[in-house]
Every structure is written in C-alpha cells, then in structure tokens.
Design goal:
The structure holds 3 protein chains of 3 kinds. Chain A is built from 11 helices and 12 strands. By secondary structure, chain A is α/β, with parallel strands linked by helices. In chain A, strand 4 and strand 5 form a beta hairpin. In chain A, the strands form 2 sheets. Chain A has an 8-stranded mixed β-sheet, with helices on both faces. In chain A, strands 2-1-4-5 form a 4-stranded antiparallel β-sheet, with helices on one face. By secondary structure, chain B is mainly alpha-helical. The relative contact order of chain C is 0.13. Chain C is an alpha/beta fold. In chain C, strand 11 and strand 12 form a beta hairpin. Classes of the chains: A alpha/beta, B mainly alpha, C alpha/beta. Chains in contact: A-C, B-C. At the A-C interface, helix 6, helix 7, helix 8 and helix 9 of A face helix 8, helix 9 and helix 11 of C.
Chain lengths: 336, 306, 343
C-alpha cells in the first residue's frame, strides 16, 4: 500500500527575493519501505521533509503539487489538522533535534507530554511507556529521570528517536539523524532504527548528504539537486548502475574503506542560486556533458522499470558512465 | 604552474589600487546603508548631528552673547526679542542654550573617547593574557565598580577644581569599567576562534594579534558603550553643576539649571529658564541612547540570534 | 630584509616531527567544598603518553572519535598549546627549549589548516592581506610574487579575482583554499590539517583533498591529517594512528591497518564506518555504549570496560608495543591480538 505519495511538489520561501527551494519533485513511499533522499546542502531536501511534515517555517509555502498521505491530501492541512497526525501517524527527527529538548524538564516529562497530547493515557501508563521506549532505543530506562544536559549528544538523539516512536507512527522522517554523531554511535543508532522498523513495520524517509548511510539503510533512494529530482530508484540499482552525471559524480567523490583505493573526482563549481528561475536542467552549468538541449525542460526517462532519470541524455548513458569515472572529464568542465 | 611577475602583473597591482578606492567607496556605501536600516539609530544620529551643528555654528546662530546682561529685561518670558526668554540677569536663554551645546558635546565626546580607550585596552589585555594579568586587572575593575560615582566626583572637585575637565577626568577614571568587562568577555570568545589561532600559528606577535585581529572585532562593542558614555557624561555634568559643584563661570546647561534653582525660578514662574536646558539635556542624552540602543543588536554579538 | 640563515638543523636525518610520551592534561575545576576539603585535583588527560614519528614527505593520519584528544594533540604539536609533559622534537630540536630564533624558524616551517572555513579567516581582512600577513611577520621579500604564487597553487585562479575579496564574498571551498594559500605561502615543511573538509559539501571535498595531496607531494612536506572519518584518512595518508581516550591504540601503514585492524577498538571503528555499497547492510554494532568519563579512567587498558574480548591480562595497561608485526611497522596496544585473530 502506498503510504506517501508526493506529486510534482513545489515549495517556495517568500522573501525578497522569493526562493523556490523545491521545484517539482515526485516519488512514493510504500509501507515498510525506507526511502533515502540524497543531496548536498541547498538542494531542497530539508525543505521537502518539512513540507511533508507540515513544519515549514513561516515564510515557507507549498506553491504547487500535492502530498498524499494514505490517499488523503495533506498538502494544505491547517496546523490543527497537522497536530492530529503529528507524532501519532507521522513524526520527524530533525537535524538539531538533540538540542530541541527542553532543558528544564526531565526526559520522562517530555516523552509523557508528547504521548498525552494524543492519547488518553494516565501519568503512570505514559511513564511506563517512556521507560519502554528508552529500552527500545538502547538506553537505560532509569535515565528517564535525567535532565537533557545530563545526557550526551548521542543519548539525546536517541531520546528524540524514542519520542518519535512513542505513538507508533506509520511514517518517520529523519533529517540527518546521525550527522553530528561519532561513527560508532551512528552505527548503533542506525542499527536500532532498522531493527525497530522490522519490529514495528513503519516506513521511513531518511534525508542525508551521506550516500554511505543511504546505501546501508535504505531500500530506495532519490537524488536531489537544485530543488529537482535527478534520479530515483532502487538503492542497489542506483549504486551499481546509475545514469545521471550528478549521481555518478557524487558517487565518485566519496572515499571508502572498502575495496581498492581509487582517485576521487570532484565536481567543480557550486550549486545554483535558487532565487533565480532556472531554465532546463539545474545541473547543466556544472555538467561536463551539457549540450544546448539541456536548457530545455527536463524529461523523465525510465531506462529500467522503477528507475527514473531526469536528463536529456546529450550523449548515450553508457558513455556518460564511462567518462564520469575519470577526473579529466570533470576538470575539463572547470575550464569552461 | 607558476608564472614570474611580468609587467602586466604590475599593471594588475596598479589597477588593484584603483579598485581599492572603489572598494572603500563601496564599503562606505554599505556602512551607510547599514546605518539607515535602523530607524531608531538613524533618528539618534540625526539629532546628534543637529546638536553638533548648533555647537559648531553657535556664534552665528545665537542672537546675543550668552553672558550679556540686561537687567532691565530680566526674567522676560519668550517674546519676539528673546525667543526663549531671559534669566534673572537679563541674559538670553536661547543664546545660553546654543553656546551650552559646546561644553556638553566636549564633555560627552571626550568622556566617550577616554572610556572607550581605557576600557577597550584593559579588556583586551585582561582577556588575551588571562592568568595573573587578568586577575589583577579584573580586581581593578571590581574596585572601580565599588566606588560610587557622584560622591567620587564631588571629592575630585574638592581636590582639583570645579571645571568640565574634572568631570571628564572622573569619568575616565571610573566609567571604563563596564566597557572593560564587556570587551574582556568578547575577547575570551574571539581568542578561541580559528583565525586567531591561525595568527598565532604563523608566529604573529601578541601585539599584532591583539590589535590587528582581536581589537577590530570588538570595536563595534566599544563604540556602543562609548555612545552610552556620552549620555552619562552629559547627565553627570548637569547633576554636578546643579548640585553647585560646577564651574559657575561656565555656560553649560547644568549651570543654567543651577542658576535657575538659585534664583528660585520655579517659584517665580520662570519656566523657560529651567525647562529649556532640561530639554536640551534630555534631547542630547536621548540621541546618544538611541544610537546605542538602535544599533546594539547588530553590534553586540551576544545579542545576536544564534 | 631577512637573510636565509637557519638556526635549525636541516641536515637532521631523523623524522621531521617526533613526539615521545607527549602529555597534555587539563586540570578539572574543583568546587569550593572540594577545595576546602583538599582533595586531589583531577585531570582530564586529553593526551596521555603519545609517541609518534613522521618523516619528511610522509603523511600520517590521526583518527579517532570526538573526545579522544586528536585535535588537542594537533594543537600541542604545533605549539598552540603548551604540553604538560613529554617531548616534541622538530628536526631533532626539542620544541620547549628552542631559542626565540629557532622558534621563529619553527613557526615559519610548521603550519596548520583548520576545520571551519567560516571561522578561520579574519572577516576584516581581504584575501591579499590575509595571505600577506605571514610574509610580513617573517619579513620576507618578493611578497607580491609569493602571494600570487600561493593563490595559484591553491587553485584560486585567476588570482586577480580573489585578492580584493573578503571572506563573506567567498564560498566554503574557496575560503578553505585561502586558508591553504596562507598556510603554504611560507613554504613550510610540515603541515597539520584538522578536519580540513568536514564542513564542506561533498562535491567540493574531493577537490580540496586532491589539492592538499598534490601540494604535500610537490613541496615534499611532512603532514598530519586529523579526522574522525576513516574513509578520508585512507584516501590521504601513508600511515595511520588510531586514538582512544588520549592514547594511540594502533598504528601502521594505512592499507594494512584498514584491511587487518588488530586492536578491538580499531576493529569496531572499521566495522562501523558506513560504506557506499548497498550490499552492505548496517551490521550489529560491535560496541555498545559510549567512551567513559575521561576523568575517571578505567584500571589497566582504557578500552577494557567496553571491549568484547577483555580478559584478566587487560587489567595491566598495554603499551603500543604489546603487539607488533615482525617488521615493526604495525603495532597495537592490546595483549589479546593473537587470541582474537584465532577466534
């Protein structure tokens, strides 16, 4: 069953000037699936997550498209309507979440508040549930008594994860949930999240710049650039045979401890200015294969079923794949 | 691939100079635009500027000599000849007001500069060196805080002489304390920044680090407290003169208040004699506060939103 | 105008940077009560007896998680912080006993690149002023030429476009290049890079890393790379040291260390590093919990309480030579390496 469906979503931040951060993104998330949204800073992925969650800042606005949650159009839900689904059906772990715990309340009180806002549970019952949740994320249940400052960053992040699971939501959005954490804690948390997912059957959307995390935790993925979707499909497929030059460039830019040591390639240039309208492909100015046709509106190709690529294919995809592996290809673009 | 400097590179440096000038103009444009952003601060600047003009052009603006007596015309309410009336000796209030702007601004700015200079340096040195130096300097600050301001000035007036310089001196001796504290805490923060560490890594001397790297970044803060100091200085002069510890021969707003009080202006319904200097003081002080408060958020790093 | 007289021994044939038993302790602030009662001051032992030797032309990686002391080690090494104990030798001369002339030369030849491109440039300096400063401090000649050369080396071309810029006009990657230009304008012989790319976008990282690697090669410098990211260290470094709670627990040639880690902490670290390979699922973590309070260090081996392989012998503190390969290149501070290998 399709839990979440996003169709041609556009999100703009009002200001002088207006900034269109999401420019027509479509994808789905099935029940029990984990979708990874990958991109660098400024690609629109956090805005996308916030739009879905309904937690856009005041000047953020959905200016096109729709978001369907379990078939219901939640795109323009009011705050009140959002509050009803928040925590209970859809919850979010945001990037600086570990800093969003209120320092003057004990952990147990904060979890309890999240629960009692939605469920008619007695104090005792929600206290029990809080302890249960702490155990679920691998924390000592006794520590519900602590204040946030008594816990380390990694522990606080786990508390946030516990809170996001408190009401057993069907859909969890995680925005860079482990970016600020050390690699061993990161492994612990990611593992726990996957375990819980198996147990509880929820779906997840993992927003991150780290493709390694996506590789290890996600079933399908979306690559974003300049507010648009560049490539989407099954994780295995995209890693083993990507089509889009940006995806390929990105993969080559990540060093790995596995396998043979290889040279890294970098993508010269910088992301586009989203306060300006962009004709055609947002990546064209940095793409070594860009041709005049890339100034025209992007098509959606599906070379393999379920694997979407948005690219004019100025040279055949096989050739793109071959050339992107070489650093000269990218350096050539820098001179241009 | 490196190239040797050729003649074309020299031209590059020359054109660099003219672009440097352009950049200075551009920097000033940006500063002015920044100042314009904050209406409160802008209002303060304009008022202060007007007062400065009045002080500078006092001889042109004032219709009479401020000390010129005219006993036949004493305590005249505002009229055509004396727009703000006269005092008990027939002296024109308006002229006194205009000339009074001079010492007010002199005291104000001199005090501000000394507060800024002393406070900034104490804060810089205490903050940067820490340890023993910091302890000693901060004890000094605490000591300065312990001394009540007005009694101190009165004592100084008794020791020296009742003149505006005594006031400036007193302010310079005591009021730097707040600037020092604030600068020190800013320095403690700046000291840990990577660009300061970078300066140490390349082997820059302490003096260079303090004055070329740290000081420019605390200047906005110093400017802020300096502008508050202007206000305090003027108020202090008024208070001291009013209490009778000022220089009786000087034409200052505070002295005007003192004379008015001595001659029982209130009882004699000569409202123009004391409300005018009072308003002048208020206006000047408000303008200084407006400037300080208006730009405080932009200039004080601690107040900025994370 | 300075002459190029040197006061350090450039004919020294030992390692360019050598550290023995280096210690950096931070006293913990004790409350009034404890001070009155008169207990011992407790210390955070950020660096607790580290040995390291880096040859000229070699890059050494220093990897560890937050709190392990790696950044502190970097700062103590270049003299930004004073060591509490142990020895630091540059070209065979002890840092703490250098004359001011020698110290000046040390400063000219040892540089650092910092992590945060948004805080490592003075916002009030233009690029030109920022790169000129080291030259001014050391009274070098041909300053304009050197500045242009440094900018070109840092791939900020054409240099004219950059000299007048101020930091807020530059991107993160550009700022980092300016930092590199400044660090290199003196043509140092040793460089420390503390997380040089962690705050940059992924697509920019590779170019900065490649640049650093090329420059280190070209100028034949010794280098110390500090990072929590093992994948990055693997990319850049000939040898690597792994740090845990102030001590180096394993050291060796990078490829060997990565393929066959010996110390349980290094093993756990390598297991936990995510890899861009979908065939790799997140595996069950080898370690639970977090590093202990650095003020209350455990008895014996620092890692013992968390170690899945701990045994009786681990109550005796192992040195880095507890395990060593025959060629002496690969060493681990663990008594149980062979036992673990066999399991």
């Amino acid at each position: 069953m399709t839990l979440l469906e996003v169709n041609d979503l556009h999100v703009t931040y009002r200001g002088s000037p207006d900034v269109e951060a999401v420019r027509g993104v479509s994808f789905t998330v099935e029940e029990g699936e984990t979708l990874g949204i990958v991109g660098e800073s400024g690609c629109g992925k956090t805005t996308l997550a916030q739009a879905i969650m309904g937690s856009l800042p005041d000047n953020g606005e959905v200016t096109g498209g729709e978001i369907l949650f379990r078939g219901e159009d939640i795109t323009h839900f009011t705050n009140k309507e959002r509050r009803e689904i928040r925590w209970e059906e859809m919850s979010m772990i945001s990037q600086s979440a570990m800093n969003s715990l209120d320092p003057v309340y004990r952990v147990k009180d904060q979890i309890r508040e999240a629960i009692q806002e939605h469920r008619d549970m007695s104090d005792q019952e929600s206290y029990e549930r809080a302890r249960e949740l702490m155990g679920l994320v691998g924390l000592d249940p006794e520590r519900v008594e602590d204040y946030p400052h008594q816990l380390s960053g990694g522990m606080r992040q786990r508390v946030i994860i516990a809170m996001s699971l408190a009401l057993d939501p069907d859909f969890i959005i995680a925005d860079e949930p482990t970016t600020a954490l050390d690699v061993i804690i990161q492994e612990q948390i990611l593992y726990r999240i996957k375990e819980l997912q198996q147990e509880l059957g929820n779906s997840m959307m993992m927003v991150t710049h780290d493709i390694s995390v996506v590789a290890e935790t996600c079933d399908s993925m979306v690559v974003m650039y300049g507010g648009e979707l560049m490539e989407a499909g099954n994780v295995d497929e995209i890693f083993n045979s990507a089509y889009h030059p940006y995806t390929l460039g990105l993969q080559n830019a990540f060093p790995s401890v596995e396998g043979e040591k290889r040279d890294l390639t970098s993508i010269p240039g910088s992301p586009p200015d989203l306060s300006e309208p962009i004709e055609g492909c947002p990546f064209a100015s940095r793409c070594p294969f860009a041709a005049p046709v890339c100034g025209e509106e992007l098509p959606t190709k599906e070379p393999v079923e379920g694997h979407r690529v948005r690219c004019h294919e100025p040279i055949p995809f096989e050739q793109i794949r071959e050339e992107t592996g070489k650093d000269e290809t990218w350096q050539r673009q820098k001179q241009a | 691939m490196t190239e040797k400097m050729s003649d074309s590179d020299m031209t590059g440096l020359d054109s660099e100079l003219s672009t440097w000038r352009e950049r200075q103009v551009d920097a000033w444009r940006r500063r002015i635009a920044f100042l314009k952003q904050e209406p409160m601060g802008l209002a303060g600047i304009l008022i202060l500027f007007a007062i400065i003009l009045v002080a500078v052009f006092a001889p042109v603006i004032a219709p009479y000599e401020p000390t010129e007596t005219d006993y036949g015309n004493s305590l005249a309410p505002p009229n055509a000849e004396h727009p703000l009336g006269t005092d008990s000796a027939g002296r024109d209030i308006f002229s006194q007001l205009v000339y009074g702007a001079r010492p007010a601004l002199q005291i104000g700015f001199l005090s501000a500069i000394s507060v800024a200079f002393v406070g900034m340096n104490v804060g810089l040195i205490a903050g940067y060196y820490g340890g023993y130096v910091d302890d000693v300097l901060m004890r000094l600050v605490d000591f300065a805080y312990g001394i009540p301001f007005t009694p101190f000035i009165i004592v100084l007036v008794a020791l020296w002489e009742p003149s505006k310089w005594t006031i400036v001196g007193a302010i310079a001796l005591l009021l730097w304390r707040q600037t020092a504290r604030v600068v020190r805490s800013s320095v403690l923060n700046l000291k840990e920044k990577p660009f300061v560490k970078s300066a140490r890594t390349i082997g820059a001397s302490d003096r260079r680090i303090i004055y070329r790297h740290i000081a420019p970044n605390v200047l906005p803060l110093v400017f802020l407290y300096g502008s508050f100091a202007i206000a305090w200085a003027i108020l202090t002069e008024a208070a001291i003169s009013y209490l009778g510890f000022g220089d009786p021969t000087a034409v200052t707003w505070g002295q005007m208040l003192q004379s008015a009080q001595q001659s029982q202006a209130l009882a004699r319904d000569a409202w123009w004699w004391f409300t005018m200097p009072g308003m002048a003081i208020m206006l000047t002080v408000i303008s200084a506060f407006l400037i300080g408060r208006g730009y405080e958020e932009q200039l004080n790093p601690e107040l900025q939103e994370p | 105008m300075a002459t190029t007289k040197t006061s350090l021994n450039w004919d020294y044939d030992g390692p360019i940077m050598e550290v023995e038993g280096l210690e950096k302790y931070f006293p913990q602030e004790t409350g009034i009560i404890s001070q009155l009662i008169g207990g011992e001051t407790s210390y955070v032992k950020a660096v607790d007896g580290v040995d390291m030797a880096i040859e000229s032309g070699e890059t050494m990686g220093l990897v560890g998680e937050s709190g392990c002391g790696k950044s502190t080690l970097g700062e103590v090494l270049i003299g930004l912080q004073e060591q509490t104990g142990g020895s630091i030798k540059f070209l065979g001369t002890e840092l703490s006993s250098m004359s001011s002339e020698q110290h000046k030369e040390f400063r000219r030849n040892v540089q650092m690149i910092f992590q945060d491109p948004y805080e490592s440039l003075n916002p009030r300096f233009s690029v030109e002023q920022w790169i000129r400063e080291p030259l001014k401090v050391h009274d070098m000649d041909n300053q304009d030429e050197r500045i242009y050369q440094a900018l070109e080396r840092a791939e900020l071309t054409p240099p004219e476009n950059y000299i007048g810029e101020h930091p807020h006009e530059l991107s993160g990657g550009e700022r980092q290049r300016v930092s590199i230009a400044r660090a290199l304008v003196l043509e140092p012989k040793f460089i420390v890079a503390d997380e040089p790319v962690s705050m940059l976008d992924v697509s920019v990282r590779a170019s900065i890393l490649n640049l650093l690697r090329d420059l280190v090669d070209e100028l034949d410098m010794g280098a110390l790379y500090i990072s929590h990211d093992l994948s990055l260290i693997r990319q850049m470094c000939d040898r690597t040291s792994v740090m845990y709670l102030g001590k180096v627990v394993e050291r060796g040639p990078t490829e060997r260390l990565i393929k066959e880690p010996k110390h349980p902490y290094a093993r756990a670290l390598l297991d936990a590093v995510p890899v861009p390979n979908p065939a790799n699922e997140v595996s069950e973590p080898q370690l639970e919990g977090e590093p202990p309070d650095p003020v209350q260090l455990p008895e014996g081996c620092n890692f013992r309480p968390r170690c899945p392989f701990a045994a009786e012998e681990c109550f005796e503190e192992p040195g880095l030579d507890a395990f060593m390969t025959v060629d002496g290149e690969h060493a681990a501070a663990c008594w149980r390496v062979e036992a673990i290998d066999e399991a």
